[in-house]
Design brief:
The complex is a heterodimer of chains A (116) and B (117).
Chain A (H helix, E strand, L loop, with lengths): L3 E4 L2 E4 L5 E7 L4 E10 L3 E9 L5 E2 L8 E7 L2 E6 L8 E9 L6 E3 L3 E5 L1
Parallel strand pairs in A: 2-11
Antiparallel strand pairs in A: 1-3, 3-8, 4-5, 4-9, 5-6, 7-8, 9-10, 9-11
Chain B lengths: L3 E2 L4 E5 L4 E3 L2 E2 L6 E8 L6 E7 L7 E2 L2 E6 L4 E6 L8 E9 L8 E3 L3 E6 L1
The chains are: A mainly beta (116), B mainly beta (117).
Chain lengths: 116, 117
């Protein structure tokens, strides 16, 4: 079964509104979570690395004020797309890394965001 | 049925040797894309190489090449001259449909590659 739950799987929102996406690790603690955006031909692009209890580290070119990331607990990180525009329409995927040494990261199911 | 199958859960390779990581896929779409990613112990996914279903030549990116055999539905990753830093998990992924259709990637189970000095 899924070890990382991402919600919602699909969301349609109006331009100018904000959308929150949740990423939960179900049976492990994740001190680090990653947020990716999927572009059609360019595949997955890392947006930011989220560390529990501290500020996220954003990749170059990713707007911090537009893509707000909160990692308030060891099992939950959220990505909020603020003032969404049609060009923000994409798949957003999280992955969570089990904090125990030698454990790998697991992907969430992804969220398809459509901004109309 | 599994869309993406990676049959090698773990592999060893000697440093400086070449290694092939297997990937087979299953789709009825004529248009699709195949991707390989590297996931080091730090956890993030690093894009390595892409092959489109209509690309006639095998994709190459530095030491990485993709052995694309469309009739067999396989897209094996070849890493030449392995380096210690290549030790990581490797994931094969597929996007079905046209590149601008916004379809999600489907990932295989991954192969853990360990490079021996």
């Amino acid at each position: 079964g899924a070890v990382v739950s991402q919600h919602p799987s699909r969301v349609i929102c109006k331009s100018g509104t904000s959308v929150k996406i949740e990423c939960r690790s179900l049976d492990f603690q994740a001190t680090t979570m990653f947020w990716y955006r999927q572009f059609p031909k360019q595949s997955l692009m890392l947006m930011a690395t989220s560390n529990e209890g501290s500020k996220a580290t954003y990749e170059q070119g990713v707007e911090k004020d537009k893509f707000l990331i909160n990692h308030a607990s060891l099992t939950l990180s959220t990505l909020t797309v603020t003032s969404a525009h049609p060009e923000d329409s994409s798949f957003y995927i999280c992955s969570a890394r089990d904090y125990r040494p030698g454990r790998r990261a697991f992907f969430g199911q992804g969220t398809r965001l459509t901004v109309v | 049925a599994q869309k993406i199958t990676q049959t090698q859960p773990g592999m060893f390779v000697q440093e400086k040797e070449a290694v092939t990581l297997d990937c087979t896929y299953d789709t009825s779409d004529q248009s699709y894309g195949l991707f390989w990613y590297k996931q080091p112990s730090s956890g993030e996914m690093i894009f390595l190489i892409y092959q489109g279903s209509y690309d006639e030549q095998n994709a190459t990116e530095g030491r990485y090449s993709l052995n694309f055999q469309k009739a067999r539905k396989s897209a094996n990753l070849v890493i030449s001259a392995s380096q210690l830093g290549d030790s990581a998990m490797y994931f094969c992924a597929m996007r079905e449909g046209l590149w601008n259709a916004g379809n999600m990637l489907t990932f295989g189970g991954g192969t853990r590659l360990m490079v021996k000095p």
